Each structure stands twice: as structure tokens, then as C-alpha cells.
Predict the 3D structure of the following.
Amino acid sequence: MTTAIAELPRLASRRLPLDMAAVSDSLPLLAALAPFALVIGVATTHGVDGVAAGLSGGPLLYGGSAQLSAMQLLDGGASVLGAVAAVALINARFLVYSAALAPSFAGQPGWFRWAAPYFIVEPTFAVTAARHDLDDPRRFRSYWMTAGVVIGVWWCGTMAVGALAGPVVPHVPAIAFLPIAAFLTMLAPQLTSRPAVVAAAAAAVVAVATPVPAAVRVLLAVVVGSLTASMTERRTT
């Protein structure tokens, strides 16, 4: 019995390996995510659907911009169908990330291909794309799941803290700019090449200047940014 108990940590680490590089890479992004998660948590206390419904969007949608947009639409009297359509449009950008990650997911076990896409969001994609030592499928699996769990737990936990603090936080319009600041904080470290800079500039112009609803602007900005980066990269190679 004693021997079996002593073996548990080793077996657990084999089944659920903790990749310390993923933890280290994720830490800077946690600070950037905190304002966004806090804003959403605070917003749940001012919403018409209640705190429980608002916080449930954290693990269910797992996309801050989509969750915040859905909450604002529902609070403004929009229909559930309209909110769902907006969420679908905003989260359509994950299709681009999925396409980029497809080669890394192709040789993975079935359970991973079904469960791991849940963690496809900007932070996990950013830390994974920045590394060049994840060719081994097992290493990729360990890195991806570690980063996903760390970021996911932090996201939902920080949102809960915002909900607890919500009743004492005044409803100031300037708080709405915190999500933008969070996105810029995550984006800046990735602008290390000409294609990335050109793509970010093109996406920013589309997001600001296109005269269409906000949800559509996000989708157009993602598509334009991706196409611009692809064309720029081809010209420079």
C-alpha cells in the first residue's frame, strides 16, 4: 500500500505533465488579462441577467470580447438570437487560429483533438506560436494543456474577483477602455516582424474605420489582418 501511494505522484505527472516553460510563458499574459477579466466580472453585477449567468460565460464562451458583447447586447434589450449571432461572428476569428494550429493537432490522440481546442484563444495561441521547440507531439500536448489550464483558471478566477468587487465599484464609462488596453498589452510583444506589424496596422484600420456593426468589424479585421500578413510574408521571402 505504501509503495502504491508513493507511486501516485509519478503516475499523475506522467498522465498530466506540467510544462514549466508554459507556466513561465503564460505569466506575463496573466497581468494583461486581469483588467479584462475584472471588467467582465464587474459588469456581471450591473447586468440584468445576474452574476451567476454572467460568470457562467467565462467557462462556457471562453472568449472575453464575445462574452462582454453578449452581455452588453442582452442588457440593451437585444434578442438571444442576436446575441448568439454576435458571439458567432466575434469568435469566428478562432477559425484562423485553428487553421494555424492544425498541423500540431493532426498527430495527437483522439481525446486531445476533441478536448484541447477548448483552449484556442489569443493568449494560448500567442505563447504557442512564439515557441519553436514544440515539434514533438507529446511536448506540444504538455505545453498546450499547461498553458490552457493556467490561463483558463486565472481568467475565470479573476472574473469572480471582479464580481465580488462589483457592488463597490462605480459604473464609470472609462472602464470600458480596459479591455482595449488588455488586448494591446498582449499584442505588443508579438509585433517583432514586418508581416506582424503590417497585419496589426491593417486590422486596426478596418476595426476603427469600417462603417459596420462592431461584431462584424472584429471579424473583418481578423480576416484582413490575416490576409495582409500572408501577402506581406510572401513578398519578403
User: Anything to note?
Assistant: The first helix runs from residue 2 to 15. The mean pLDDT is 77. The chain is about 75% helix and 0% strand.
